[in-house]
Amino acid sequence: WVQYGPQAKRRTLLQRAPAPAPYPAPRNVIIQYEQSPARIVRQFQRLGVVAASPSAYVQTYGLQLLDGAS
């Protein structure tokens, strides 16, 4: 059986936390890379233009086309 009624005043203990551990100083390192040398190769190939009939093209490649009507 717990008696209900005014509670006795309890003692309050105050204990401060220890000082936080110091963090190491940040190292701000800047890395600079040299620009890589560019190599540009200009090469043109003339493959030519061949005249073709659309109906002959569909007849030849009809099964491989995504849309046979076009």
Features:
single chain, 70 residues, little secondary structure, 1 helix, 11% helix
Can you offer a commentary on this structure?
With 70 residues, this protein is mostly loops. 0% of the residues are buried. The protein has one helix spanning 54-61. It has one helix and no strands. The chain is elongated and about 105 Å long. Helices cover 11% and strands 0% of the residues.
**Structural category:** little secondary structure
Return residue spans where pLDDT drops below 50 for at least 5 consecutive residues: none
- In helices, the fraction of residues equals 10-25%
Element pattern in H and E: H
Short summary:
With 70 residues, the chain is mostly loops.
Give the SSE map:
Layout: H1 54-61
